[in-house]
């Protein structure tokens, strides 16, 4: 769309209903500062390694990053379990 000599891009959006279980599963992969849209795009990328973002040429560095992600996932899952218990 051209407005006042400048192109303005409008992004369409849509709502998608998710069950609590589906949202909880997405939360396991959600990174700090990331929207659900970002999570879905990252996880559905054609690049099979795109969802990890930790692959490194240094195996020790990759292991550390993967362990950090596992720890974050455990923490998030524990938070969800605690919320469900309330």
Question: What's the short story on this structure?
Answer:
The chain is mainly alpha-helical and 86 residues long.
The pLDDT mean sits at: 78
Going by helix content, strand content and strand pairing, the class is mainly alpha
Percent in helix? 40-55%
Shape: flat
H/I helix tally: 3
Largest sheet: 2 strands, antiparallel
Radius of gyration: 18 Å
Distance between the ends: 50 Å
Strand order of the largest sheet: 1-2
Number of strands: 2
What does this structure look like?
With 86 residues, this protein is mainly α. It has one domain. The chain is built from three helices and two strands; from the N terminus they run ββααα. The chain has helices at residues 20-29, 36-43, 59-85; strands at residues 2-3, 6-7. A two-stranded antiparallel sheet has the order 1-2. β1 and β2 form a beta hairpin. The longest helix is centred in the last third of the chain and has 27 residues, at 59-85. It starts with a strand and ends with a helix.
Question: Can you lay out the helices and strands and say which pair or pack?
Answer:
Elements lengths: L1 E2 L2 E2 L12 H10 L6 H8 L15 H27 L1
Antiparallel strand pairs: 1-2
